[in-house]
Amino acid sequence: PSGNSHYEFVTGPGAMFEAGSPHSFSAVKDGLSNTIAVVEMRTTSPSWAPPSSIDINQLSAGLPQTNHPGGGQVLLGDGSVRFLKQSTHLDVVLQLMTRNRGEVLSSDPY
To answer: Which parts of the chain register pLDDT below 50?
Structure first.
């Protein structure tokens, strides 16, 4: 519906945004361009005004359904936006969701 947000901050243990654990950009050891901050998902959030989030553990099965066929938009920590294919291997999705596990990825897998 018009006026609804279809984007959610990724939160939770090891995610870019972790409740009660503020951190600086330098704490993102995997690199800002390798860490997802926001995912697109089909949602019924009320509006753009209130912040909305999805816990990283809810994404352990892969990317959520979106409004685009074949995948969805993700906002990375460096501010860039990429289209992530729904077929992206789960291991790659999980590596992109965490900020400091030491994974360095090229964009080839997604």
So the answer is: 1, 49
Largest CA distance in the chain: 40
Confidence at residue 15, expressed as pLDDT on a 0 to 100 scale: 87
76: number of Cβ within 10 Å: 19
Question: Which pLDDT does position 63 carry in this prediction?
Answer: 78
Secondary structure (H, E, C), the chain = CCCCCCEEEEECCCCCECCCCCCCHHHCCCCHHHCEEEEECCCCCCCCCCCCEEEHHHHCCCCCCCCECCEEEEEECCCCEEEEECCCCHHHHHHHHCCCCCCCCCCCCC
Q: Each residue of 19-41: pLDDT tens digit? A: 777 788 888 888 898 899 988 88
Assess contact for 105 and 92: CB atoms under 8 A.
Answer: yes
Please enumerate in sequence order all residues whose Cβ is within 8 A of that of 43, keeping only pairs 6 or more positions apart, or say none: 4, 5, 6, 8, 52
